[in-house]
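Hi there. Long-time user, first ticket. I'm pasting a complex I've been working with (about 517 residues overall). I'd like to know whether the download I got is complete or cut off, because the file seemed smaller than I expected. Thanks.
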Amino acid sequence: MIQMYDVHKKYVENVEALNGINLKIEKGEFVFVTGPSGAGKTTFIKIILGWEKIDRGQMIVDGINMLKIKRSKLPVLRRNIGVVFQDFKLIKSRSVYDNIAFSQKVIGIPYKEIKRNTWEILKNIGLSNKKDSFPLELSGGEQQRIAIARALINKPKILLADEPTGNIDQDMMWEIMKLFIKANVNGTTVVFATHNRDLLKTTKQRVIHLHKGKIVD
Amino acid sequence: MTNMIQLIGRAFKEALDGIKANKEAYLITIGTTAVSMSIFGIFLVVHFNIQGMVNKWRENFQVVIYLQDNIAKKDLKKLKSYLSSMQKIDKYLYVSKDQALKKFRKRLDRNQTILDNLDVNPLPASFELKLKNEYRNYKEIKSIAEDVKKFKGIESLEFGEGWLERIETILFFLKFIVLAIGGMICIGIILIISNAIKLSLYARKDEIEIMQLVGATDWFIKGPFLLEGILQGFLGAILSMIILYGFYEMFIDNLQTSRFFIGARSFLFIPPRDIAYIILSGALIGYAGSYVSLRKFLNN
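Hi, the file is complete. Here it is re-exported in full:
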């Protein structure tokens, strides 16, 4: 699903955010990406999403060559990728329902279908009673569940997460993890960037360690 | 089709939401656009009226070829057949010496007795040429005159050379001024609208980022902002025409009795077709303004 060969990315001269990354993530795999701050975790997520362009190397995501992808084709790629961030990135002026429905409206799904899908996912994450609330009225855990619901509603092939448990308490962290595992069981490839050691200790999934832009064992 | 309607509906709704959110900035932009376009409109009104006067003058415009008294018959025939073959000439009239004198008497009206003591008819025979509309300009007339002068038996040619050249120069400069002011105002409005759209874009920065993250196409994101710009330009242009018409109505009486316009023709407002063009241009300028901001914003 994701292949990288000698991938390089730098934002400033002499500082490589990613420095010669080689890896393969299979379809349906659940992979953790870890490392200290500044290791390149966020850049790793961003280049898969096409948010940042790689400088050198080769990279294929869902069969698309990321070095050659045109700007106009990026939306097509992103419709197959769900993404969740540490800061939730919810629209504060819109209700929970609208935040989730938004990502379907954007890709032109008919209203009736949007309504049905949004209700279904709200039930699945246990927040149907909060549909009219606004993000700032919710706890961190609840906001992150909304963000995950938004990422999953279009049934993406890949789910990317950049420190999704960074802003929430320990109990809620496991609730959030359950949603990711459920998505993975349903066939979504999950790439989960975190530096949370508790989370990594308990997992049997593959863990990619990054340090100064390089993969280390 | 349903999706298309849904998308267009959404773009309108989002554009209106954007307007509501930045009501004050929006009104200021429309006001500034309207004032700028009114200034341009003033020059346009003056241009239209002077152009109208010149056109009216051109309608009655004619070239007169005065013939020598002793012109040979074959030369007259040659000249006649040349004039008949000329595509640029709408019609021509031969005025004999006698006809010329008759005409002159008629024009003198009560003073025609001053001609009674004349032993000979001093007036020359002539050809009066009416050119086709599109050839009633200095360059074409000059070239026709040059050709006609080559014929034998021509005394002189008259077509108000000095006047025609002067009027055409004035019209050229007026057109240049209208275009230059129009161009500058156009750039000014593009910058004003682009600035207003920039504010709108920054206010919804997070929303746009999320749209990009979930796979919205550039056009889906641009749509509402382009509509906002188009609406600003469109409404600004309509308002400018209302302002200008208001001033026109207020000052029309003074203008019509002014020495410059008196007797020429009544002072007119911009013709409806051109008003439509101006309003359409307003919408296009609005589009350009938002496009400038969007391109910068989305590329960053």
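A couple of notes from our side: Chain B has a mean pLDDT of 84. The CA atoms of residues 96 and 125 of chain B lie 4 Å apart.
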